[in-house]
Amino acid sequence: MLIDSFNWFLNFMKRNLLLIFITIIFMSFSCASSSETASVVSLQTSYGKITVKLYPETIKHKENFLKLVNKGFYNGLLFHRVIADFMIQSGDPNSIKAQNGSSLGSGDVGYTIPAEFIYPQYYHKRGALCAARQGDQTNPLKASSGCQFYIVQGRVFTEIELNELEKNGAQKIEAKLFQEIVNTKQEEIKKIRAEHSQVKLDVLRDSILAEVSKKMKTITSFKFTDKQRLDYKTIGGTPHLDGSYTVFGEVIEGLDIVENISKTTTGSSDRPIEDIKILKAEIVK
Asked: How far apart are CA 181 and CA 26, in angstroms?
């Protein structure tokens, strides 16, 4: 009887081994997916609740934001910079005890976060959660502030406006490529100039332009995807910021609150006349 039972068990395992294996794998993926989705944060503001989802791909920004939320860092901070049809910004630790009318926006936590551009998958559509940062002159690598963020309100763009933005983007890339190639040919340029040969300079210039043109055919980063175009023409956003600031999440509830905050009356440095606070930030799941 014992042997028969054992043989039955072996036969059962052989018949169902694949099913068991699939079940284990499925459970593993379920656990992984669960941990990836555990990145939703609620921002209870004095205007109402804004709920944001953090993208798993921008892992450094996600982990840093969750860390600060866990510490209660954002509780009591102001939306210190608000621009209608553009964005609302918060995260300056100096804003928690700021006097009325004082200039804000320079506070930080003593570190920056390397840029995480997941583009064009994530872009500056309405409701995008993005990291603020210092300007390009002092921050050429576009590293993000360790604490300050903004939420895009933006506006709707026309097809013509988007085409013009693409054109401007292409021109910037062309200019950058041209300068990079010129930098590699400084000795040659000096030699030609010493010869006072304008003809040779023109030939060199044309060869550089031809090289730039060839490289531009392989670059598409300045072009909007169909999804971007649709969003920017319908819900709106700030497309001119794409590829320059890290987008690490988006609003999944409370876009009306973002809009109401963006319309508030502001004073100097775009600070709202009436203090608008993040009363409490907490991880939802």
From this structure: 51
Which domains occur in the chain, in start order?
40-155+235-283 (2.40.100.10), 160-216 (no CATH)
Question: How much of the chain is in helix, strand and coil states, percent to nearest 5?
Answer: 45, 20, 35
pLDDT tens-place string over residues 156-180: 999 999 999 999 988 988 998 999 9
245 close to 128: Cβ distance less than 8 angstroms: no
- What's the Cα-to-Cα distance from 235 to each of 128, 156, 238, rounded to whole Å? 11, 6, 11
Q: State the pLDDT confidence band at 37, using cuts at 50, 70 and 90.
A: low
Q: What are phi and psi of 234, to 5 degrees?
A: -115, -65
Q: Helix, strand, or coil here: 230?
A: helix
Distances (CA, A) of 88 to 128, 184, 211, 221, 257: 11, 42, 42, 27, 11
Amino acid at 249: G
Dump pLDDT digits (tens) for 88-115: 999 999 999 898 888 899 999 999 999 9
Strand duo 79-83 + 87-90: pairing: antiparallel
